[in-house]
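Quarterly update from the structural biology core.
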Amino acid sequence: MIMLPRTIEVWAYGQPADLRKGYNGLWGLVKNELKRDPLGGGLFLFVNVKRTGCKVLLWDGTGLCIFMKKLERGRFAQLWDATGAGAPVQLTSSELSLFIEGCMLVGRKSLSPAALTSKDLAMADRV
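Predicted structure, tokenized:
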């Protein structure tokens, strides 16, 4: 299990990806398709068309890292629509962990409570 702070941004690529891609190929998908900065500290999730494998790309401050998981049985949740060309999906770090563990609800239903802001906490003090 990957332990990540809740505040880290996790972006799932909204269509099937070719997991033969390495650092440069995934970097290109992040820059050109997701329109995100791969060096911005976020994590980027990619899933193959059969949904039996996934890769997570991240910048750890010293270099790019790729984590990969291949399922021997079953499939990962489908994060794209039936046409296979969906928009990127933003996940929480908890939802990423659930996705990697095989939870089928990830991407379909919010599984994490909304993040608290300092304004929310200030309003709670008034009660």
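The longest strand covers residues 53-59.
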